[in-house]
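Researcher: Let's do a round of design. I'm pasting the structure tokens now; please hold your answer until I've finished.
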């Protein structure tokens, strides 16, 4: 018989008793659990949840050129994907054109290369933007990519109020955990609040931010830290919007969140419930929100890329299934399931299809979507929900005492906490206190290799030719004039989104817009933390 460890606890250090005895519970069922669709939304933001409709099934995709990514999107839509999710390459994420010397070797590698409106038109060719919801994982250059998307909508004749989707647009987590930032915090927050204001008036169905715990968890945080640091970022964004005069109930209904779904099924279900309840309380009690939609934590979930293994990659299908199940039992509004080969490469078409089928089997065959919050009232789930909420509140109170999340980031506090959690987990793996199947236990000799997606180096050469051709044929006077107006606006206080939209419609590139803003605002340099 396989041996078991002596102590049982979650990733957040919550001790698990052999049995959650209800006689020892402090759970206030009436006030803390409540009913689905009612404050504090512990049990979900919709009364009927998936009985009304399933979650949006997205598959994060983007690689090489706009043409190749467009073909993958059309394939996924034909296979039952109900929303697009765009991955951009690293140069696009940090505001570099494909012909920038700093972009060498990275063009089209971890996502699609988008340099100008020409690329965006190709990426979305044949995809009606009034019928498809699109999520774009982009942060530092989110304002530019949003404007490119809106410019395509205009060319399709789609009114802005019919456009539906999400930009991640969460720069704080870039400073904390990921690193694809460009500008210092103050102008970065200005871009975000400008998007809030512009979309509230003109693009009402667009989710203006997806406040992301995903990358915080990928960097090594615990579940409790993921809740706390994500909601602390959210608090910062709400306060920044209030500080520039926006009314909370005007922008807050379009805030959304993005969480990780990890391996510990019970803790992950409880994590989603705790985050939803805590955010509702924060919006109502801290910010005085009155609109119920302002208090609802709507979230997208992606299964945990950091848990995928290069060893025995087919086992990743099992991991992804458990994680997807946790997200659905936790009440997600949207879900991406990772492909089994992502520890080795970008997903092949076959692997992406299996990942999508995972969601479809859960939706149509498992029965878990037939009941709202099926695990509600479970002593284990409710106790874990309470404890995770309590631990998250402790972190948020510490951050508040430091002067808020920006000060905490400057001091390196969340970075150190995540680093320590990641270090402790790695030690546990090396000591076999934490078992990773196929890595530190149950290994096999692996002779076979699975097919992987290869990105040819010729992609970079063709993309360089493409962006240079765009610059050569555009009206250069209009392009330069729109850049000058953008720089003037950036030095002042007017909303920048109309200026950026004018730039992209004149075929100014992502890199040119970013560089012009760099001249006005400078660049962020991370402080060294030990």
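Researcher: That's everything. Go ahead.
Model: Designed sequence:
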């Amino acid at each position: 018989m396989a041996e078991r460890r002596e102590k049982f606890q979650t990733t957040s250090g919550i001790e698990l008793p052999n049995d959650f005895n209800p006689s020892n519970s402090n759970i206030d069922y009436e006030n803390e659990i409540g009913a689905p669709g009612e404050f504090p939304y512990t049990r979900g933001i919709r009364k009927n949840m998936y009985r009304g409709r399933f979650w949006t099934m997205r598959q994060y995709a983007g690689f090489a050129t706009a043409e190749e990514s467009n073909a993958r999107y059309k394939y996924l839509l034909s296979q039952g994907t109900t929303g697009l999710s765009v991955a951009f390459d690293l140069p696009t994420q940090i505001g570099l054109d494909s012909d920038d010397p700093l972009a060498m070797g990275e063009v089209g590698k971890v996502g699609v290369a988008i340099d100008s409106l020409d690329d965006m038109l190709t990426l979305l060719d044949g995809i009606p933007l009034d019928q498809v919801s699109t999520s774009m994982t982009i942060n530092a250059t989110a304002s530019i990519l949003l404007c490119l998307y809106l410019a395509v909508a205009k060319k399709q004749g789609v009114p802005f109020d019919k456009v539906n989707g999400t930009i991640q647009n969460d720069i704080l987590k870039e400073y904390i955990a990921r690193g694809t930032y460009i500008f210092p915090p103050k102008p970065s927050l200005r871009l975000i609040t400008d998007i809030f204001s512009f979309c509230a008036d003109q693009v009402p169905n667009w989710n203006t931010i997806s406040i992301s715990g995903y990358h915080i968890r990928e960097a090594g945080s615990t579940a409790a830290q993921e809740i706390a640091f994500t909601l602390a970022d959210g608090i910062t964004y709400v306060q920044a919007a209030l500080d520039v005069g926006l009314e909370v109930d005007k922008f807050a209904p379009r805030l959304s969140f993005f969480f990780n779904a990890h391996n510990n099924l019970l803790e992950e279900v409880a994590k989603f419930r705790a985050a939803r309840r805590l955010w509702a309380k924060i919006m109502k009690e801290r910010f005085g929100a009155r609109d119920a939609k302002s208090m609802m934590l709507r979230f997208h979930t992606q299964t945990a890329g950091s848990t995928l293994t290069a060893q025995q990659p087919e086992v990743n299908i099992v991991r992804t299934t458990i994680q997807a199940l946790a997200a659905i039992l936790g009440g997600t509004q949207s879900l991406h399931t990772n492909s089994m080969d992502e520890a080795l490469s970008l997903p092949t078409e076959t692997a992406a299809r299996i990942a999508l089928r995972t969601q479809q089997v859960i939706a149509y065959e498992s029965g878990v979507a037939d009941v709202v919050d099926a695990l509600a009232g479970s002593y284990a789930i409710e106790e874990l929900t309470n404890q995770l909420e309590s631990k998250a509140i402790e972190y948020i109170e510490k951050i508040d005492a430091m002067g808020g999340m920006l000060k905490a980031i400057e001091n390196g506090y969340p970075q150190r906490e995540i680093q320590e959690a990641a270090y402790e987990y790695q030690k546990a793996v090396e000591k076999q206190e934490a078992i990773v199947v196929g890595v530190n236990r149950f290994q096999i000799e692996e002779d076979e290799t699975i097919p992987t997606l290869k990105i040819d180096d010729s992609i970079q050469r063709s993309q360089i030719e493409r962006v240079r051709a765009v610059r050569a044929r555009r009206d250069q006077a209009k392009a330069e004039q729109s850049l000058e107006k953008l720089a003037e606006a950036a030095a002042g206080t007017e909303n920048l989104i109309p200026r950026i939209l004018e730039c992209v419609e004149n075929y100014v590139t992502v890199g040119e817009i970013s560089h012009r803003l760099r001249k006005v605002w400078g660049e962020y340099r991370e402080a060294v933390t030990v």
